[in-house]
Amino acid sequence: MIADPDIARAFETTWPAAEYMRVGGFEVGRGKGGGGRVSSVRAVEHDWDAGDIARTEAVQRGWGERPMFRVADDDTALAEVLAGQGYRHGTPTAILAADCATLLAEPIPPMLAFPLWPPLAMQRDIWSAGNISAARQEVMQRVDLPKTALLGRMQDRAAGAAFVALDGPVAMIHAIEVVPALRRQGMAGWLIRAAAEWAQEGGAHRLALAVSRANTAARAAYDRLGFAELGGYGYWSKD
Fold this sequence. Notes:
The protein is α+β, with helices and mostly antiparallel strands. It folds into two domains: 5-93, no CATH class; 97-232, Aminopeptidase, CATH 3.40.630.30. Helix content is 32%, strand content 33%. It contains eight helices and eleven strands. The protein has helices at residues 5-13, 52-62, 76-84, 100-103, 121-129, 134-142, 187-201, 216-225; strands at 19-23, 26-30, 41-43, 68-72, 88-99, 113-116, 147-154, 157-167, 170-178, 206-212, 228-237. The strands form two sheets. Strands 4-11-5-10-9-8-7-6 form an eight-stranded mixed β-sheet, sandwiched between helices. The longest helix has 15 residues, at 187-201. It starts with a helix and ends with a strand. The mean pLDDT is 97.
């Protein structure tokens, strides 16, 4: 899914499941409502056994979660087996990264974005009003790495929030949410630059993120900021 080992590691460690279980060549994540990334199965060995798929289903159903796999775009072998077992493909997602120095070529205006931990109530309210539920916010609490919650301000009010965590030379930004009335005014871009600044101060030199391929507006904005695609994946699920 991601050829770069540092970004591949940070992709998992900066947004972790509540627990993991190894089933043959697969790793099963228990998300507890925290979204597909932490509530899915992924191949961690090339020599996985197709018979293990039923075992992963049993684990997920035992946890009260729907059977779901996170499959790299280039893993056609696993995709074909899942399709044959009644799984359906959805939510194609791209993984992007940019150099922090590139993102910081344009200085961040003062008083526009602040790193804070733990998050303030206003940040949690912004997330909750968007697509970042309490269960997704709980994922942030589980991260055992340097981390922060960014608060963006615009027009003298709280305008956006994001979460960023750092694993060695790579930081990943998650849960970018902007107040609806203040969207399309550049707030998301400033949050990303603030994440790059925080990451660089912590010793990282690259910032990565995941974005749905259907979100063409966000993807275009990331391209303008200097992000490049490193890989992609999709979710395969069944009822």
